[in-house]
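Please review this one:
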Amino acid sequence: MSASGQPALENAALDLDALRERSRRLLLSALDAVAAAGGGGGIRLVLDQRLSGPLGLVARPLDFRAHGVDKIYHLESGPPPQGAGPLVYFVRAEFESAQVIAAQLSCAEGSSARATLHFVPRRSLPCEKLLEEAGVYSRLAVRECHLHLLPLDKDLLSLERPCFRALYHDGDMSVLHSVASSILELEDLYGPVASLRGKGSCAQQVSRMLKQMRQPRQEAGRPAERASGPRAGGRQIGSLLLLDRVCDMVTPLLTELTYEGLLHSVFNIRPGVIDVEPELLGLPPGMPVKRELNSSDALYAQLRNRNFGDMGPLLQKLSRDVQEGQEERHAAHTVSQLRDFMRKLQQLETMRKSLSLHVSLAERLQTHTAAPAFHARIAAEQEALANAGATADAEAALDGAIGRAEPLPSVLRLACLHSILASGLKEKKLAALHAEVLSEYGYSAASLSLNALHKVGLLRRHDARSGWPSLRKALDLVADDVPEVEGLSDLPSALSYYYSGYCPLSTRLVGWMLARAPHWSSRAEALGWLPGPLFWEEPPPREGDEEEPPATLPEGSVARREVAVVYFLGGCTYSEVSALRWLGQQLRPPVDFVVASTHMTSGDQIIESLMQTFENSLSSLE
């Protein structure tokens, strides 16, 4: 199985092959320009480690070699890679990367080197200023490589730009320019978005940026835009929904219970690939082995959205099916029967290999989910959801997690969940929480982290008003019954399946926002508890649009589903993607959702992005 992470994109709701090919051409043409400039020797390509996975989604190793790359290096402290060929950097526009490049070109080995620096996706004046002050800017040819949304799967796109802390703690909105640029790129490929709706301050800022970016195009007429729109027979985006992550912090703070969500929590899917211990695959001990996780694996496409509680029976049934299929060889007697069996045997072998991988992964996850601490955590979360996080049992569960010295991100995640559901913690409880956390985990490890959680609003003092009960009732967020799913191709009967009783607020919000604006008023008051404005916009028709005849369908054909893009600003969880896949099937008429996000995340990763430590310089005086 390939471990590049590149998914097969056939039969996607949108022609995502066109998006991937566009990104591939941008990347490889940048390398071609360097190779054409000469200098002798193959290109020494130095990548920001955060770009290795994303670039692998659009180009394979053979592509790099075919376009002049001799060897690929990771950007690390120390001298630059030695060689006669051109030196090329691809990095995110961040200070740390600029500092390493400046140090490499300032050291003895790099003091005479010239290099090409590509910022992905945009250059940064502060970074360029740093390089100038270091005295190396004059030896750099600085470029931009406008790589934006990358296909992780047929219905999943990502900027691969972790930015929760930047957006909601630091107030750094630079990633929103990339979001707006990526939407324009989608419009270039698939035509103008018919309807834009959003919730949140960042979402509204992206909407404003889009208006500003579209204006020069509209004034210029952009005749090429229509030509570069959807290909013949291609599909357009009917609705674009922009959602601030902070509009729903309950969902990511809950423990994910889908197979894919748990895999991300335990193994960390990066992008489309996980690192697996070789022992899990029956291999000798050694370095972790990369395994691809996307819908190119047909079995994984069917398993990933399942609640992990259903995985055991499903895998057992699949194992029996494979075994029974292999036994059919005994019934093959004629040449025709043998030919049919050999054809089926190839499919069975592919299934057997995939099944072996997922059985091994499920066994590893089982050790995690069978632990008493995991069950205690799920019980604590469900208690908090049902009672607005304000019961003695919920508080006891939090105290117990601290007493067991569970990892600090996990403890803080539960504390933040309680705080959000209860509209803050009472002052006495909040002070006790601070004292317990600082005592158990240490001042240097926890103090700045607690301050950051307060700044973002995940931890706060209790407000007499409580919005959770209103939201829970208005959007029907907590269900008494959890549906069971038996067959591999069966759909759950209710949204509560994905979180064992909780219906993701983000998914409910998407379903509600897709309704026409006149129907919004029914729940607008409850949604006032969520941060940021709610808006609905439709772009004005472009010149010439009214002259086009309406599209007609061939006789006997069925109308296509609407394509709706849901764009999360600040991260999206894999379980939310599963829930949106379900929602698309349930809406009438059904909708094909394409989920886009600044990055894929989890509750622990959100908390970890806000955590800081500091060195106690007084300790050296002892």
About this structure: The first strand starts at residue 43 and ends at 47.
